[in-house]
Structure formats: structure tokens, C-alpha cells
Amino acid sequence: MKFCTDWLVELCLRNDFVPESQLPWLRYCIEKRLSTAIGLFPFFVGAILLTNIESAVCFVGAFCVLRSRINGYHAKTLGGCLLVSLVTELIFLIGLYPVLTPLSAVLLTLICIVIMLLLAPFNDSKIHLSEDEVLALKVCVRKRSIILGVLVFASTMIQLTNITKGLATGTAMAAFMLCLAYMSKKGGSTNE
């Protein structure tokens, strides 16, 4: 991963795609995209094995759609990231998913949306989001949260329980990772 990241950063710098002052940001973005691509495969396979195809697609979809805008906890290494992601996925899909009812899924989704509206996005020190970027992400989080909330409610109304539970579990895991980021910062203010 380091080799690929270094090669891409060097390529961008050599071709003047990005100024040298933006290299830390570029490195972070490349690492994030690569780790997401690497981690998504076992994440999705695990979801299928623990639930079913409909729930797995909705779980992974909801999580990824939210996580890409709200940010959240980041481990220090790719291995740590994969481990935290897979352990968290196991906890949510083994501990939460089976006990969700349509009503509890709707209520949980509403609680998670409120949490995300209050806390997102998490401005990780590696990202260095400007105030304008934070505000733009807040708007995007609102839109995505509302859409997911409507999807959970609609799937509940038409009795698509697997979809409801998958969406609610993915939303809950995204909100949990957001809260975990704040807890791991030990009181540091991050939405500046």
C-alpha cells in the first residue's frame, strides 16, 4: 500500500497535478481510497455470510454512503483499520441486526440521524477541512440522512424487513464510528 501511495503522490507531484503544499492531503486521500477498496471486499463478504444479500447490500451501502461524508474513527494502520472495521461489523451484524424489529429499526435510524446531524463531519487532523468544507459536508450529511431515513421508513411500510434492518444497521454502525472518533480524541475539538 505504501508503495502504491508513494508512486501516485510522486506521479501527481511530477505532473503538477497538485502543489507541494497539498501533498499531505493527497497522501491521506489516496491512502483512504486504497484502504476502502481493500477493506470493502471482506466487509461485504462478511455481511453476506452473516445476513442475506438484500441486507448485506443495504448495510454496506448505507454505511459507505454515510461514512464517506461524516468521517469517523481512523486506525493508525491499514491492518488496524481492517481489524476495527471487521470486528465492528461482526458486533453490529451478530449483536444488533438479529434483534431489530421494523419499529426498532426506524427508531434507531432516527436516533442515529440526530447524532450525525449534531456531530458530523468529524474533522480528522489528517484531513484539515476548512470551515467552508465542513459546512458543505454538513449539508451533504443532512441530505443523505434524510434519504436514508425515508428509505428505512418506506421499506418498513411495505414490509421489506431485510432492507429495513440492513439500512438501519449500516446507519447505526456509521454513527457509532463517528462517536468512536470523538471518544478517541480525548476531548480535542475537531469541528473547527
Condensed summary:
With 192 residues, this protein is mostly helical. The chain is built from seven helices and no strands. The protein starts with a helix and ends in an 8-residue tail after the last helix.
What does this structure look like?
The protein is globular. α2 runs antiparallel to α3 and α5 packs parallel to α7. It contains 7 helices and no strands. Helices cover 77% and strands 0% of the residues. It has 192 residues and is mostly helical.
Shape: globular
Q: State which percent range the strand residues make up.
A: under 5%
Distance between the termini: 31 Å
* Helical proportion, percent range: over 70%
**Individual helix count:** 7
SSE sequence, one letter per element: HHHHHHH
Q: Can you tag this structure with a few keywords?
A:
single chain; 192 residues; mainly alpha; 7 helices; 0% strand; globular
List the helices and strands and how they pair.
Layout: H1 2-14, H2 23-50, H3 53-70, H4 78-96, H5 102-119, H6 131-157, H7 161-184
Helix pairs in contact: 1-2, 2-3, 2-4, 3-6, 3-7, 4-7, 5-6, 5-7, 6-7
